[in-house]
Amino acid sequence: MNIAVVGTGYVGLVTGTCLADIGHHVTCIDIDEEKVAKLKRSESPIYEPGLEELLERNINSGNLTFTTDYEQGFKDKDVAYIAVGTPENDDGSANLTFVETVAKQIAETAQQDIIVVTKSTVPVGTNHHVLEVLQQHKQDHVNVSVVSNPEFLREGSAIYDTFNGDRIVIGADDQHAADTIEEINRPFNVSVYKTDVASAEMIKYASNAFLATKISFINEVANICERVGANVEDVAIGMGMDDRIGNKFLNAGIGYGGSCFPKDTKALIDIAKRVDYDFKILNQVVDVNTQQQRLLVDKVKDHFNGNLQGKTFGVLGLAFKPNTDDMREAASIVVTKELLDAGATVKAFDPIAMDNAKQVLDDRINYQNNKEDTIQDVDAILILTEWDEFKYLFNNEAFKEIQNPVVFDGRNIYNAEEVSSMTYYSVGR
Ligand code: UDX
């Protein structure tokens, strides 16, 4: 198939590259010239394990090309994927300006029948609106259809997830379009679930909101465990043995971040509001997460009797989770700001996300080149992201030299034995 993918952000780039890898001819389009120039050299603008190798292989085989020229990009294409951003508006709703603009451009350029697939996470009803825009701007002899094909990729394992996902959801009100997209995806060998457009749009939001709910739920259970002397890890294991509950996404910690959960939960609350429905549980899920991101700061303040003036903290991990350089909605944003505002000095290090962190975090942060420097001469160490290289910190010579180390572990990465020589705080244990 000849496929165009518009938007080379995280979703578009992974989708385009993987579709090329299973044998399709893919042109990725983006207005950002610098980014496209980089991609043509097989350089990925994001950190995603395995992506650069895949880029190189498919660019070299001729299956994958990049352009900033819409007309050239849409020429002779059977299918166009829309994978542009839907940033959050101030009121929590999704901003659809980019999606609409691209739909119009596709319609104005297409010279042959085309199926438009939305990968961007869009509110229920958007695909029908996209169809209207396409019909309004297309040429008379061209037939257009829309398909909702939400992505469920996790950052840091997006390539793996594409080839080993739990399901591919195809939402279409047109059988031919649904069958074509199923055929395109067949080589991935992942189960396909076909439904109508509105249900597919809803599946994406409901899935992410449910996972966020699971996290906020276990975080509240953790907060209770601390008060009743239970261990949330054991509780989660015991709960997860029940197949109906499942053992995944029950890790307590300092809350969820990233590009999806915070945005999608708020967007679903907004979608509900627009149809006069108050999504009560989800409002609480969001509130609990805000509270949880501050949890470690409260523990630090308690330990130092409320006075952080003149104290120095070594913060390990800034990305919202390991194996990514993504800083969006990371707990580190809240934690470092609170510490600084309370008069503390903050030293910080992340193995991959330093460049992005410098753009997002407070200028007062003292960035370090490695974990050893970060934990030297500090009053306490805070672990905010569970990178592998922090998991054996207690074996590190620099750590062993610290007299009476104090560690606040926001991701529960150590067990009781490992922390016997430190003053140690974690979540729900
Ligand atoms: C998520 C979804 O998993 C994916 O299906 C969707 O398409 C996009 O959003 P991602 O944001 O990449 O993917 O990260 P994920 O690994 O799901 O973690 C999200 C956040 O939840 C992270 O901040 C993580 O630390 C937190 N989390 C996850 C927990 O706090 N506890 C858990 O048990 C699991």
Q: Can you offer a commentary on this structure?
A:
- The protein is an alpha/beta fold and 429 residues long.
- The protein folds into 3 domains: 2-195, Rossmann fold, CATH 3.40.50.720; 204-292, N-(1-d-carboxylethyl)-l-norvaline Dehydrogenase, domain 2; 294-425, NAD(P)-binding Rossmann-like Domain (Rossmann fold).
- It is built from 17 helices and 14 strands.
- The strands form 2 sheets. The protein has an 8-stranded mixed β-sheet with strand order 3-2-1-4-5-6-7-8, sandwiched between helices. A 6-stranded parallel β-sheet has the order 11-10-9-12-13-14, with helices on one face.
- Helix 1 (10-21) links the parallel strand 1 (2-6) and strand 2 (25-29).
- Helix 1 (10-21) packs across helix 3 and helix 5 (97-109) runs parallel beside helix 6 (126-137).
- The longest helix has 32 residues, at 197-228.
- It is globular.
- It starts with a strand and ends with a strand.
- Uridine-5'-diphosphate-xylopyranose is lined by residues 151-155, 208, 211, 215, 249-251, 253, 256-258, 260-261, 320-321.
- Belongs to the UDP-glucose/GDP-mannose dehydrogenase family.
